[in-house]
Design a protein that fits this description.
By secondary structure, the protein is mainly α. The protein folds into two domains: 1-53, Homeodomain-like (Arc Repressor Mutant, subunit A), CATH 1.10.10; 56-215, Tetracycline Repressor, domain 2, CATH 1.10.357. It has helices spanning 6-27, 34-41, 45-51, 55-76, 81-96, 100-105, 107-110, 125-139, 149-167, 176-189, 199-214. Helix 9 packs antiparallel against helix 10. The longest helix is centred in the first third of the chain and has 22 residues, at 6-27.
Length: 218
């Protein structure tokens, strides 16, 4: 028997993930079983478990793919700080549109730091850190002190998470309500970022950072 090539393994993995996401969108994560996913992908249950040991692993694979799309989006963004942030914030929402229903169904899990698939969990830290790293890279061109960049990136990431929670439950045409909220929020926040370069701003940044660490929010 010819060995399975990496290309074929990757294609099988992508097929499994695609079928799983369709089922998650249709039935919800909780109601979907690994047997359902294997059947939809046309493979045995054992083979499905070989690629993904659990439904949570499939959700994490979705997180990874979505984060990769976010990084590519940021790499293409140009213009002023406001324009770049607008592009990545609006673009991020569009990347999750196909899984709106799935994400809306697991909102409670997303905000639970003790849940492995939660946005604040230890298991999702790597993806979370990558997302904040992207935002920090964008902010690096804003002439802010290096010591306040991590806090500013955390604040923007938390804003992005809040907007995503609004987005997945937004039933307005083309989610215009949430996209409008993105613009309003950025129009208020971006002009205030230079204040972080002042002595008072730096002191505030230190206090907020300490509070976030004590609360284990990020």
């Amino acid at each position: 028997m010819a060995p399975v090539t990496k290309k074929k393994r990757d294609a099988t993995r992508e097929r499994l993930l695609a079928r799983a996401l369709k089922l998650f969108q249709k039935k919800g994560v909780e109601a979907t079983t690994m047997r359902d996913i294997a059947k939809a992908a046309g493979m045995s249950l054992g083979a499905a478990y070989y690629y993904f040991p659990s439904k949570e692993a499939l959700v994490f694979a979705y997180y990874e793919d979505n984060q990769q799309a976010f990084e590519e989006l940021a790499a293409r963004s140009t213009g002023t700080l406001r324009e770049q942030l607008g592009a990545v914030f609006h673009g991020k929402l569009e990347t999750i549109r196909p899984q709106k229903k799935m994400l809306a169904a697991i909102v409670q899990r997303l905000i639970d730091p003790s849940d492995p698939v939660g946005a604040f969990s230890e298991q999702s830290r790597a993806v979370r850190d990558r997302a904040m790293g992207v935002l920090e890279s964008i902010l690096a061109g804003a002439n802010l002190p290096a010591e306040v960049l991590p806090l500013a990136a955390r604040a923007l990431w938390l804003l992005q998470m809040a907007l995503m929670l609004v987005y997945v439950n937004d039933d307005s045409p083309d989610e215009k309500r949430t996209h409008g909220l993105v613009d309003d929020a950025l129009d208020m926040i971006v002009p205030m970022l230079p204040l972080l370069a002042t002595p008072m701003g730096k002191l505030l940044a230190e206090k907020v950072t300490a509070a976030l660490h004590r609360a284990a929010i990020v």
